[in-house]
Structure formats: structure tokens, C-alpha cells
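[User] Once you have settled down, look closely at the record that follows, and write a paragraph about the fold.
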Amino acid sequence: MAKDVDTIDADVIIVGAGPAGLMLAGELRLGGADVIVTERLERPTGQSRGLGFTARALESFDQRGLVPRFGGLETSPLGHFGGVRFDFTALEDAHFGARGIPQSRTETVLEDWARELGTDIRRGWEFLDLEQDADGVTATVAGPDGEQRLRARWLVGADGGHSLVRKLAGFAFPGTDATRGMYLADVVGCSIPPRFLGERVPAGMVMAAPLAEGVDRIIVCEHGAPPADRSQTPDFAEVAAAWQRLTGEDISGGGADWVSSFTDATRQASEYRRGRVLLVGDAAHIHLPAGGQGLSTGVQDAVNLGWKLAATLAGWAPASLLDTYHDERHAVGARLLTNTLAQGTVFLGGVESEPLRDLFTELIALDPVKRHLAGMVSHLDVRYDVDATPAAGEDAAAPGDRHPLLGRRLPPRDLITADGPVGTAELLHPARGVLLDLADDPELREAAAGWKDRVTTTTGVPRDPAVFAGATAVLVRPDGYVAWAGTDPAELAPALRQWFGTPA
């Protein structure tokens, strides 16, 4: 029997303390929600499949003031699509993303931040089951004192590609099964020659890059090799044998800090919300790893969901606000699956893919193609449909009539205010809405006064006015995306009501 509906342990239970779950915890705490994170591992493994994140994820961390916690961050203007390298500066302000940041470091930064904000993170607590009703969700967990039941108003599965939350809550997870298996290992004592972008060899693909003194990260993809049994951890001897078959190099005399396997299985949850259960990150979508997109997409799922779920709990969210999480992020996830499948076909295919690789090499030399692909894999081209509901008798604006910033992430820029320069990313640190008054307009400020408990108005002159494309006012959601941009204060209220509810 479920706990009494009045006995609430937290507003939200998050299952899984990976990057997506921890980012969501911080976002929810900034919005005032009580959060419990359950994680079956008693301590982080220290293992890192990912070694960086995309440009858009970097901006998401910046808007919460987290970038200095990573130490020195290196970004590169050079990236690739399907192993074909090109210059990302074809897209304004673009770069491939942050390089050389182990996922373990990202998780440490996010866990420290979430704890500082007051998140209750319970390591060594394994999620077992859930029951949901109209008022909340009861989770059964195995903790240090045995099985317990925790109740929350909402539960979020951030428990990875094999998500138990997804299965128990009845989410459909359509897609394609794995067609190829790959090994990943951090090898010690072998001094393996670098193959930074990967090298296609007659029997497959190999990649190698130095991580530290005496440690090399290798990836092995052998044509015709069946997908590995993911329930069993491969041993180093398997990896060394595959490496020798593909390269002729004998690394069996070395060892490995850790060994893992992965596949090109590609699936996406049909919906990201079922009742009071939601999914983020790999629990919602799995795909071939390519350029740090998995971690980065999960972090952005969390940033999109966090403020909306917190607003729902606070009572001021419009009725449709939480549903926009699926509407916006499911489309992004679907596009992610498309681009990773395409990259796998180009990069990992055998001789049958050579004509496709040759064609991609030609196409990527064209600037419009560079811009398109750079925007896709950096996630800088994400644009949500955020048009305010038109008034009675009016038609929604045609796409060509929309302001170029509408639905896009606000570019990080400086404003000169009465108190000195301030960056737009800094204004987003509290995860509140932001109204930029770029023309010192008292009528605009008066129009937004009813939402001052949810939206902070900042008056200033932009250093780079061209970025705002003629707008004298810009309304920015807590996740950094532009909800409205224009010049007429009378047009502001519909957007405020759509995203921030009725005025106080």
C-alpha cells in the first residue's frame, strides 16, 4: 500500500546521479523544490566514457556560474561529422565544445553544486519499484537499512540507457537494435601511437589518444563482430586481441585501468512524461556516442525541464508549461538519433560506405554544409517554437515573420548597465526569467511589473546591438531561450502569460 498522500518526503525524487540527474537537481533547487536523488552506487566509479561536452552544454553550465569550477577549459574550432574534420567557425560563435574534461570531473562539479544548493543525495540507495497516482509517486528503494518507500509529487528517471524507471512506468522505447559492438579501454603501459580522430583499417576502425603519462584511451570497432553482452564487463584480453587483429600491434603486455563496451543501438522514448513520471538523458534516448552529444543532450534536457517542473510545484506555471518539455526536447532527441546514425554509417561502415564518405568530404568543403552540420552537432541550431498564443481573431506569425532570436538560445553578450557591465549569462545564474530593457523604457518595465516575482528586469545598453536584430526588449526564459523579442511593450504580456503564468 502506498504511503498516505499527505506524507511527502520530497517534491521530486530523481533516480540516478549522472550528469543529467545532478543538473536537474540543481535546477529544481534553484526553483525552490525539495529534491531527493537516489543512486545505487555508494561512490562514483571515477570512470569516464565521455571526455568533454558540446558548445551548448558549455553555455548551459556558464549560465549557472559553473564554468570556473571546471578549471581551465579548452575549446577547439575544429570538429568532425562522421570522422570528416572541418572548421566550426563557419557558424558564428561556434566551436566543437570543451575538450579533455572527463565525465567524472563533470559529475563531481555538478554533485558539489547540487549539494551546496541543498539537494539530498542518497548514495547506496537502489531504486526498485514505483507506484503513481493522481497526487504523486511512491518509490520503493533499497537503502542502508533495507527496503524503504519514499513518496514525492513527481519522479524523474535519470537512470541511464537501461532505465528501470522507464520500464516500470510503461514508457515505449522504439528504435533499432545494435548492429555492431565496440570496446573502450584506458590502457596503461603500452605507449600506443595516437589516432586522434580514428583510423579506418581493413577490418574496422581504431582510435587512440593519450590521457595522461602512460595512459591511452582506445576504441576498437571490428567489422562483423557481434554486439557484446552488456551485462558482462569485457576483460582486457578481449580488447587486446581485437586491437591486434585490426592493427597488428600487440598490447597484451600492458593492462587497463578499466574496460567497457558499447553499441550503436538507437532508441527514444515515445513520450518524455507519463503522468507524474518523467525521463531525462539516456533514460529517454540512447545512440552511438559521437562528439559528447549524449551527456550534453541530457544536461540540456535537465535545464529545459528543471524550471518548468519547479514552476509547476510553485503553483504559478501555466497549465500547458510542463507539456512543453516533451514538445521541445523530444524533437531535439529525435534529431540527435538521426545525426548519430548517419555518423555511424559514414565512419564505421566498411567498403560499401566509401562512396558516402567521399561525398561527405566534398560536401563539407561547402560553407552552407559546414554551418548546417556544425549547428547540428554543437546543438547551437536548436530553436523551439515559443510563439505566444495569438489573441482571438489573430493568426500566429509565419516563420519568416518571427524575430530571428525567438526560440533560440540568447547569445552570451555584455550589457552596459548603471552598475557597470554585466553578462547575459550572469543574469541567468538564479534560474529566473530575465527581461532585457535595451532602450530604458518605463512603459516596458511597467508592463512586466506583475511578474517581478518570477522575472528580473535589467536595463542596459548592449555592447553588440547587432546581435539583438533591432529588438529593444528581449524576454528570456530561465533556460536561456528567448520567449519574446520586439519593440512594443504592449506585445509583451501574452508572452509573459504563456511562459510565466498570471501576474501576481
About this structure: The chain is about 30% helix and 30% strand. The chain has three domains: 10-78+97-175+267-345, 181-263, 399-500. Residues 390-396 have pLDDT under 50 and may be disordered.
